Amino acid sequence: MIFFISMATEAVELLHHPEYLWQIGVPLSIFYIFMLIIPLLYAWLTKMNYEDMVALVYSVLGKNISIALALAVVFFSSKTVMIIAIKPLIQVIFMIGFLKFTTPLRKHWSQFVEKKAVLQVEHR
Known about the structure:
Distance between the termini: 54 Å
Strand content: under 5%
Radius of gyration: 18 Å
Mean pLDDT: 76
Order of helices and strands: HHHHH
Number of helices: 5
Number of strands: 0
């Protein structure tokens, strides 16, 4: 509902200034790259099992509207509502991308985590 309302209120502004999509989309994409890498790295460092890793990544990718809104206020001031309108477009792309990535990752995750544990034992 928030997405629909914010997109409806900002549609005319986006049509008149399509460059706003780049100004907002690029920082949001960088934000989501970090929001994807950080939980994956955490899951790897803590030797999390595959199912918990997927749950962690999806919860981080899907539950950060308040962080994005805070970033919008700091960096874009008057375009805050536009951030909420564009954010789901970027968010869905990253979530679908991770979904596509989970199939091949499932085959290798436990080996990847076990290999890290073996390397740590050999290093000691």
